[in-house]
Structure formats: structure tokens, C-alpha cells
Specification:
This protein is mainly beta. The protein has a single domain, classed as Porin (Beta Barrel), CATH 2.40.160.10. It has three helices and 16 strands.
Length: about 475
């Protein structure tokens, strides 16, 4: 009976595959770059019928033109995720235990982010884009009359999350090789910022190294030029932009530039803007190789108070990245390398250690001269070995390795803290229940300080969606 079942299943898959090959959907080509679920006419039976109400993002959602050709007037969508983690370590590896984090059991559950996104075409050349993020449930305050406290008026924080305008920009399409975008835009440094949707990485959370030492999602206000050129093996796309620069107040020991993005106040400093460039190569089907560069000539010039770093000279920061992604029917893999360099780090450390305790910044020092992150992940598409038969669940077991150190190199008279040197290994599984919906589970172990301190182990499960709900 089992053999007959397997045989009939494989036969059905082959029939479905042949039907799909004979009815290729032209909209899955590179021109529109958008994923459309296959029509039920290509399926062997009703098992593979899927709702097309929510349209998934294309596999490479952030190519330069993206999928702007897939709608005529407007579209609205977004992404969101929920994660539960079961942890076998404490909350702070830096205090209270000489061996690092305490060995204790604790569990957490959260909605890291929920995002609403939309685009509107004024006409074929002018396009408005917007993206609003509700992080950790959003934020909120209330104004209350406390009758139990002699009728005092109080303002209380009700939620500790964040609501952020991640994108708000106007795009002017001019030519395939040259276009302009102005407003609040994503800074394409590294692989995660441009590919931050939860269906674009395997783990229950974003890659930890890259999102520790630089902002994520990194968005700034400025001007961008973009386009693509070449064809065949010489196909490239590029982005070049001038945006608000990082703020020296936000650099610290644990996250390096991770907390240095501007946006705390009504206006951002543009005294020392940053220059960003990114180049991607798409010359081989399924393969994307990219590099990016970030430069700000003086992060001290973007401080909350200009006098904080007066007289210390300029503090330039440079960030270099290399990354790649490969997808085919059977495997999916990504890798990234990031190096960050900060000049005058020892002087900045002395200044930031003396910031006001009301400033909202961590004031943790010393700040490193150089920070590093690299890693990669690879998954096996089980469904691909059965001709992508819709009868088979889309299950992808994966592994990921990361190394990161926000104090890779520290300038005298300071010393680096080995507890910031993290090597982490993750193994897990993704079930893509729908093209726009994924259920994840993974186990992670962090090796701290090369093994000098307690490992940090956890198991996590999550569910996430990414896609467009409606369009015209």
C-alpha cells in the first residue's frame, strides 16, 4: 500500500510538472520580477490550489526596479512576525558572573515588528512609496488622573515599543540606467537592510551579527540615484545616495554603530552627511553578488549638541561590505562580510563615557576602532527534489553560522572585552505554508569569547508573513 501511495504521488507530481512547463506564466519573468501563484490548471488536483488573495514578494524583492511594473495605480501590503524563545541563559553576560551569563531558564514571546507598506503611482513616472513599522507592539502614553494619589495628573508610558516611519519617498523613473528617489529611504549597507523581510532569511530572527553592529532596518533621509545596466553575464544594478549621517552620541561598546542612527528629534542633523554606494551583479541566473560602502566624514558633526565633540578633531566612519545570495530549485544560500572602521575611537570613548545619564544613550565604552561581522546560511529545498510538486510541503532545513565582534580592535589605552566576541551556530527548519507565509523553528548556541565564558543556548519558533494584500 505504501509503495502504491508513493508511486501515485510521484506520478501526480510529474504530471503537474509537465503541465506547469507547458503553461509558463510570463509574469514570473525578470521584467516584472513578481511572484504569482500558479493557476490551479497546472495542478494535478485540488491539493495544490492556493489562494492568490495575498501576493508574495518576489524572490529578489529589492532589485533596483523591484516589482514596480506589477501594479498599475496602487498597492498595499506589508510584513510581520511573531517569535517565542526558550532560553537557557540570563539577561546580562557582563555583570554578576565571572563566567559570563548565568545559566538560568527563561522564556520570551514577542511581536518584533508589524509593517504596513504601500505604493501609489501619480503616473507612470512619479511614484510615492511609504512604509510604517510597529515594533514590539508599538508605543503609547496616557494622561491619567490618579484619584488614589490625591488627584494628581500623571503621564504614563503604556507600551515600550516603537512606531517608525521607515520609508516615505518620491521616485522619478527616467531611464533604465538612471532614476532618482528623494525622501526617507533604506540605506543598502549589508545584505539584511535591503532584504529585511522575514521571508528573506531562514532564522526566527534577523542575522544577529550584521544587525548588532549597524542599524537595522537602517533608514535615513536624503537623495538617491539608482539604475541598472548591462545584460547577460554583465548585468549590474547600482544605488548611490547622500543621506543624513550617523550620530557620534549613539556609538557604544556593545553595538558599535547599531544605535547611532538619527531620528530621536523632530529634525535630523545634516551638517556632515553620509555617502553610500552599492553595486550588485546578476550575471548568472539565481546568483546575486553585491558590495556596499558607507562613509561619513565626521560623525561628531551630527551630535545632538555641537559642543560635545568640539576640539577633538574629525571622527570619520567607514563601513565596507560584501554579500551574496544563490537560489535554485534545490538550495538557497546567503553570505555576508562586514568591516567597520572608526577614526579617533579612543577620544570618542572618553567623550561618550561622560554623556548625561538623561541623554538616552548607553554611554558604554570603550568604542572600538574596528568592528567585524561575517556569516552565512544555507538551506535545502526538499520540495525541489520532487519537481516542486504541490503535494509536497515546502520544507527547508537550514544551518547558519555567524561571527561578530563589536570590539574587534580597540585603541590604547583601552582593552577589548572578550565577551563581545561571539561565534554562533543555528540549525532549524522553515515550512513555507504559502508563498507569503512561513513557519520557522531553530536552535541556536552562542560561543562567547572563544569558549572562555558560558555558552548561550536557545530554541525558538516563529511565524511570519510578507506580501501585498491588494493592488490595482
Amino acid at each position: 500500500m505504501a509503495n502504491k501511495t508513493i508511486l501515485s504521488l510521484l506520478l501526480a507530481c510529474n504530471i503537474g510538472s509537465a503541465a506547469a512547463q507547458g503553461n509558463t506564466d510570463a509574469t514570473t519573468g525578470a521584467t516584472n520580477n513578481i511572484y504569482h501563484p500558479k493557476s490551479s490548471s497546472t495542478c494535478p488536483d485540488t491539493v495544490c490550489k492556493q489562494s492568490a488573495v495575498m501576493e508574495a514578494l518576489p524572490e529578489d524583492a529589492n532589485t533596483i526596479y523591484g516589482d514596480l511594473n506589477s501594479f498599475s495605480k496602487w498597492r498595499i501590503g506589508g510584513y510581520g512576525e511573531a517569535v517565542a524563545a526558550f532560553k537557557r541563559y540570563g539577561t546580562n553576560r557582563f555583570y554578576g558572573h565571572a563566567e559570563g551569563n548565568a545559566k538560568e531558564s527563561r522564556n520570551t514571546i514577542a511581536i518584533p515588528r508589524a509593517v504596513i507598506a504601500g505604493d501609489y503611482k501619480f503616473n507612470k513616472k512619479w511614484i510615492l512609496g511609504i512604509e510604517i513599522e510597529f515594533e514590539a507592539g508599538g508605543t503609547g502614553t496616557s494622561y491619567e488622573l490618579e484619584n488614589t494619589e490625591n488627584g494628581e495628573y500623571e503621564t504614563e508610558v503604556e507600551k515600550g515599543g516603537e512606531v517608525a516611519l521607515e520609508q516615505l519617498h518620491i521616485t522619478r523613473l527616467i531611464h533604465r540606467a538612471f532614476n532618482v528617489r528623494a525622501g526617507h529611504i533604506i540605506v543598502p549597507v549589508g545584505i539584511t537592510n535591503n532584504h529585511h523581510e522575514p521571508t528573506q532569511f531562514f532564522g526566527t530572527v534577523r542575522p544577529e551579527g550584521e544587525t548588532t553592529i549597524i542599524p537595522s532596518t537602517w533608514h535615513e533621509t536624503g537623495l538617491e540615484f539608482f539604475g541598472n545596466f548591462g545584460k547577460g553575464y554583465a548585468a549590474f544594478d547600482y544605488e548611490a545616495m547622500i543621506v543624513t549621517g550617523l550620530n557620534a552620541n549613539g556609538f557604544d561598546r556593545n553595538k558599535w554603530a547599531g544605535g547611532a542612527k538619527q531620528g530621536k528629534f523632530e529634525v535630523d542633523n545634516f551638517t556632515c552627511p553620509a555617502f553610500v554606494a552599492r553595486l550588485n551583479w546578476h550575471g548568472v541566473k539565481g546568483l546575486r553578488l553585491g558590495t556596499s560602502f558607507y562613509y561619513c566624514s565626521n560623525i561628531g558633526g551630527n551630535a545632538d549638541k555641537s559642543q560635545t565633540y568640539a576640539g577633538m578633531g574629525k571622527t570619520p566612519v567607514r563601513i565596507y561590505t560584501l554579500d551574496g545570495q544563490y537560489r535554485n530549485q534545490w538550495v538557497e544560500a546567503r553570505t555576508n562580510f562586514m568591516w567597520g572602521n572608526l577614526t579617533n575611537s579612543s577620544v570618542l570613548s572618553a567623550k561618550n563615557g561622560k554623556l548625561s545619564n538623561k541623554s538616552g544613550y548607553s554611554r558604554l565604552t570603550p568604542i572600538a576602532r574596528r568592528a567585524v561581522s561575517y556569516g552565512g546560511e544555507a538551506g535545502v529545498k526538499i520540495k525541489g527534489f520532487f519537481n516542486n510538486c504541490p503535494k509536497f510541503p515546502d520544507i527547508i532545513p537550514f544551518v547558519r553560522y555567524e561571527y561578530y565582534n563589536s570590539q574587534e580592535s580597540v585603541t590604547a589605552p583601552y582593552n577589548a572585552d572578550d565577551r563581545l566576541k561571539v561565534g554562533m551556530f543555528t540549525a532549524g527548519i522553515n515550512w513555507r505554508a504559502l508563498p507569503c507565509l512561513v513557519i520557522k523553528g531553530d536552535y541556536t548556541t552562542r560561543r562567547i569569547g572563544g569558549g572562555k565564558y558560558n555558552n548561550e543556548n536557545e530554541f525558538a519558533i516563529g511565524i511570519a508573513y510578507t506580501g501585498w494584500f491588494a493592488k490595482k
